[in-house]
């Protein structure tokens, strides 16, 4: 009798196990499933899915839905449990100079021209080498990943080394080699710079993580002839053009004096602007110029904290949003911010424009969050690939805590994300379907080594600027 019961139990067990295996077999096997969290999709309907899940395969999102839907159709070897947390599209830092992390706090509390000519340009001339750039990049990458940034747009020297470090860390970047009309660390002449840029673009084009770009510093530091040559190179290769435009009132006044017109109008007249241009700042455009930038499809990156710190002015972001311009958010280099924290930029953008326009309705929390995600992707001309959690897009996500003290109690998701959440609330970061940070532990970068290397450079930089090495204006 006992034997018979045992036999029946064994048969039932085998049947159960077989049906489980069959059910598993019917499921599509993917690389990674993020499940159980509140998924803020930023898709066309702005869906926020409670207890949602995301299935990821081959670096792309293959399905987004409720956790039960995802569990029914998909199985994965690796699971990220996001229960009680929020799953957001990875944040996009639209403008930075990542190795400048090593100049963080070197010179503060002065205007752009004094800061640049007295401190930054001399410090760069004495210290920037390929090794400096690699060390500063690793520091910036670690800081960005720990705060949920999955894509950044950069412009600096030795950008090939920056691309290499970015790729090794598993981070996504639109990376522009800077071209400027004076000798710099990596290139001494314009001919050298042109050759470098062309080589750099060809080497990285087609890479899954790195979009190589061409970065003329600004219309006041690069001649018309060189700007036209760089635009032609962009036409030939399809590479984006990253630059600074209309950052300060002085830049606009100087441009009117020297060229008879504003920076935006000048760049348009020489045929530089198009829908591959990514323009940082654009603090001082006229109303007509906002319309022109929209018509041409120029991507714009607003850097509220850098603009505030250097007292550069307040960009007309509410007007740009009203006209639906592709405007994202950036930190600018860490020397003028002094961190690479997009959470602060979202919060600051929302508040700065309310104060400046005396209207608390402008730049809502949802709009600020959109600027750091989908609209930021539009600013980088990458909206088909990133910026939202949608089937077919690249799998760039961040899992963020929702129950920290500063988030309690919880009422509204966008309000929480923009006004209450902090960078330290980011727990897990996924880029191109790969977990880059898990439960706040970086998996591709070593924080202790990075900090030790940066401190070593601090000593060197202080020595290099010692005595009377800083030129007087
Ligand atoms: Zn900049």
Give an overview in words.
The protein is an alpha/beta fold and 473 residues long. It has 17 helices and 17 strands. Strands 1, 2, 3, 4, 5, 14, 15, 16 and 17 form a 9-stranded mixed sheet that branches. It is globular, with a radius of gyration of 24 Å. Residues 467-473 have low confidence and may be disordered. Bound molecules: zinc ion (ZN). The site of zinc ion has 6 residues, from loops. Zinc ion (ZN) binds next to loops.
What level of helicity do the residues show? 40-55%
Structural class: alpha/beta
Record field, number of beta strands: 17
Characterize the biggest β-sheet.
Answer: 9 strands, mixed
Q: Distance N terminus to C terminus?
A: 101 Å
Question: Uncertain runs with pLDDT below 50, 5 residues or more?
Answer: 467-473
Gyration radius (Cα, Å) is 24 Å
Notable features of this structure?
single chain; 473 residues; alpha/beta; 9-stranded mixed beta sheet; 4-stranded parallel beta sheet; 17 strands; 23% strand; disordered C terminus; binds zinc ion
Write the layout of secondary structure elements.
Elements: H1 2-26, E1 28-40, E2 48-57, E3 60-66, H2 67-73, E4 74-81, E5 85-89, E6 91-96, H3 112-127, H4 130-146, E7 149-156, H5 159-169, E8 172-179, H6 190-204, E9 210-216, H7 224-237, E10 241-245, H8 249-259, H9 263-269, E11 277-281, H10 287-296, E12 299-302, H11 304-309, H12 317-322, E13 327-329, H13 342-357, H14 365-372, H15 374-379, E14 397-401, H16 413-420, E15 426-431, E16 434-438, E17 441-442, H17 447-464
Parallel strand pairs: 1-4, 1-5, 6-7, 7-8, 8-9, 10-11, 11-12, 12-13
Antiparallel strand pairs: 1-2, 2-3, 5-14, 14-15, 15-16, 16-17
Helix pairs in contact: 4-5, 4-17, 6-7, 13-14, 14-16
This protein binds zinc ion.
């Amino acid at each position: 009798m006992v034997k018979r019961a045992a036999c029946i139990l064994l048969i039932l067990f085998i049947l159960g196990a077989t049906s489980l295996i069959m059910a598993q077999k019917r499921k599509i096997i993917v690389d990674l499933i993020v499940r159980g969290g509140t998924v803020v999709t930023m898709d066309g309907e702005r869906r926020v899915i409670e207890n949602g899940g995301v299935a990821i395969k081959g670096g792309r999102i293959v399905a987004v839905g409720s956790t039960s839907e995802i569990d029914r159709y998909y199985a994965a070897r690796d699971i990220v449990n996001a229960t009680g947390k929020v799953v957001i599209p990875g944040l996009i830092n639209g403008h930075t100079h990542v190795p400048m992390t090593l100049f963080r706090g070197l010179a503060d509390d002065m205007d752009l021209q004094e800061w640049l000519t007295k401190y930054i340009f001399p410090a760069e001339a004495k210290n920037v080498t390929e090794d400096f750039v690699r060390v500063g990049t690793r520091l910036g990458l670690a800081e960005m990943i720990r705060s949920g940034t999955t894509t950044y747009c950069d412009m600096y020297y030795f950008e090939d080394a920056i691309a290499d470090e970015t790729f090794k860390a598993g981070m996504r970047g639109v990376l522009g080699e800077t071209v400027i009309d004076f000798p710099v660390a990596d290139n001494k002449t314009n001919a050298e710079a042109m050759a470098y840029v062309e080589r750099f673009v060809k080497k990285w084009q087609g890479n899954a993580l790195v979009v190589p770009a061409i970065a003329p510093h600004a219309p006041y530091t690069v001649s018309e002839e060189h700007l036209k040559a760089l635009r032609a190179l962009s036409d030939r290769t399809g590479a984006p053009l990253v630059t600074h435009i209309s950052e300060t009132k002085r830049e606009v006044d100087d441009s009117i004096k020297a060229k008879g017109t504003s920076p935006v109008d000048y760049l348009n007249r020489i045929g530089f602007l198009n829908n591959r241009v990514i323009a940082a700042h654009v603090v001082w455009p006229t109303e007509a110029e906002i319309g022109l930038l929209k018509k041409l499809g120029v991507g714009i990156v607003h850097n509220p904290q850098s603009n505030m710190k250097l007292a550069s002015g307040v960009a007309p972001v509410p007007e740009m949003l009203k006209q639906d311009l592709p405007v994202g958010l950036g930190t600018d280099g860490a020397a003028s911010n002094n961190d690479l924290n997009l959470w602060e930029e979202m919060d600051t953008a929302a508040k700065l424009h309310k104060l400046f326009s005396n209207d608390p309705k402008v730049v809502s929390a949802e709009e600020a969050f959109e600027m750091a995600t989908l609209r930021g992707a539009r600013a980088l001309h990458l909206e088909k690939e990133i910026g939202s959690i949608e089937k077919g897009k690249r799998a760039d996500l961040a899992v963020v805590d929702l129950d920290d003290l500063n988030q309690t109690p919880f009422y509204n998701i966008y309000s929480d994300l923009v006004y209450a959440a902090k960078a330290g609330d980011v727990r897990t970061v996924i880029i191109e379907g790969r977990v880059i940070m898990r439960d706040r532990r970086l998996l591709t970068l070593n924080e202790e080594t990075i900090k030790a290397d940066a401190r070593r450079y601090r000593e060197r930089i202080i020595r290099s600027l010692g005595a009377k090495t800083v030129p007087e204006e």
